[in-house]
Amino acid sequence: MIEAASRVVLAPMRWWHIDALGPIEHDLFGDEEWSPGMFWSELAQVATRWYRVALDGEELVGYAGLCVYGPEEAWVQNIAVRRDRQGHGLGRRLLDELLDEAVRRGAQQVLLEVRADNASAQRLYARRGFEAVGLRRGYYQPSGVDAVVMRWEAIGER
Fold first, then answer.
1. Which of 51, 125, 139, 140 is flagged as catalytic?
2. Is the pLDDT of residue 28 over 80?
3. CATH number, domain at 26?
4. Does 142 sit behind a cis peptide bond, omega within 30 degrees of 0 on the bond before it?
5. Mean pLDDT, residues 82-94 taken together
6. Is residue 92 one of the residues assigned to a domain?
7. Is 130 inside any structural domain?
8. Which domain, by its residues, includes 113?
């Protein structure tokens, strides 16, 4: 079987992608999903935000975003891959794009928050060199699930 992620193109997220990513956002995050307005707000902050979509032809199958706060640090805002496309390396590709952009912008570290009950995402981040550095109790609302804070040091990594 041909690697499904290999035919997927990563491209800049644009406003017209917001409706297409909504079903993925809802399926993966439910009551904690971002609203379309939140994505609009993120895209409007062009100086500090950097978003990509994963497209298989015209079909949006994933997306990811980064926020860069000057040379000190960057934050992974989100990474999402449609359930039927998970496990084929697309999440890794999206994460690598974010890390490459953080390095291009001079970030010394990249941080993220991941649900404490999302072991597969934590494994993905750990395989890319992220280390758990903290815990935010009850961070995700309304579920009250904790967030694990993870950090990646850019120095010498890429």
1. 125
2. yes
3. 3.40.630.30
4. yes
5. 95
6. yes
7. yes
8. 4-153
Domain total of the chain: 1
Q: Can you give the pLDDT at residue 71?
A: 77
Catalytic residue, candidates 42, 113, 139, 140: 113
What's the DSSP call for residue 129?
T
Is residue 125 annotated as part of the catalytic site, yes or no?
yes
**Which residue intervals of the chain are DSSP H helices?**
18-29, 36-44, 90-104, 119-127
How far apart CA 130 and CA 38 sit, in angstroms, is 26
pLDDT class for 48, splitting at 50, 70, 90?
very high
> Residue 131, exposed/middle/buried by CB under 10 A (0-12, 13-18, 19+)?
exposed
| Predicted TM-score (pTM) of this structure | 0.91
Residue 158 predicted with pLDDT over 90: no
Is residue 158, in this structure, part of any structural domain at all? no
